[in-house]
Amino acid sequence: MLTCKKEMVEEEVPESLTCDICKTSFSFEKDWEEIEECQHVHFEGGYGSVFGDGKRYKLDICQHCIKRLLGKFLIEDLDTYEEDDDDEDDEDRVSRDLE
To answer: Global pTM?
Structure first.
């Protein structure tokens, strides 16, 4: 038989996230919607990369900086919306499209 006891364990939990571009800090407690829209970029340079072979990089960037820096280059992925449409099954969609 396994017996258990209760212990208080200290653990590190995220408190805030800071955009590496604009340095705005978002609180996990109050700014969770902003944090959900932040993007976390992690990559490793490959052979012949301008970043250096095997070098690793990371970047946390808020939605406002993404829009400001990349907005004019971003292309909306309209195909994603069709895949997320759970209200119709394939037969209904095909018959509707054929009408």
So the answer is: 0.67
